[in-house]
Amino acid sequence: MEASPRLAKAAAQPQVYKNINLRPLTIHPLASLRRYKDLMDLSLAAGNIEAHYVCGIQEYFHKNNTTVGLSHLKIAAQGSYDNGIYTFTE
User: Fold this and answer.
1) Angle formed by the axes of helices 37-46 and 49-57, to 10°?
2) Which residues span the domain enclosing 19?
3) Counting Cβ atoms within 10 Å, is residue 38 exposed (0-12), middle (13-18) or buried (19+)?
4) Rounded distance between C-alpha atoms, residue 5 and residue 38, angstroms
5) CA dist., res. 71 & res. 24, Å (int)
6) 23-43 pLDDT tens trace
7) Distance between CA 30 and CA 83 in Å, rounded?
8) Do 48 and 42 contact (CB within 8 A), yes or no?
9) What is the pTM of this model?
10) Which positions fall inside the At2g35280-like TPR domain (predicted)?
11) Domains in the chain: how many in total?
12) Does residue 6 fall inside a structural domain?
């Protein structure tokens, strides 16, 4: 993503990353494994629940890191990310 330096500076606020719409990445969470790394890192740091959902899916299913994956999915679920599908089994 490119923007003018003035616009990029204005957008570099935690509130922007917390509320940015990451819906396209939630539909295809593996797309951000190699792209959008900076965007995902900034969004996670700002507490974006869609970013936590995407990261949870990646960690749990792609990287086989179930502990980290579940912690991100828990944050997404508790943050009321309703577009995710959550199944819990014991």
Assistant:
1) 120
2) 14-78
3) exposed
4) 17
5) 22
6) 888 888 888 888 888 889 999
7) 17
8) no
9) 0.78
10) 43-87
11) 1
12) no
Q: How many residues does the chain have?
A: 90
Q: What is the pLDDT of residues 66-86, one digit of tens each?
A: 999 999 998 988 887 666 555
Tell me the two tokens of residue 46.
Answer: 């700002």
In a domain, 85, yes or no: no
**Residue 87 falls within a domain, yes or no?**
no
Q: Is residue 53 part of a domain?
A: yes
- Cβ contacts of 48 within 8 Å, gap of 6 or more: 17, 18, 19, 20, 22
Tell me if 18 sits within 8 A of 44, measured CB to CB. no
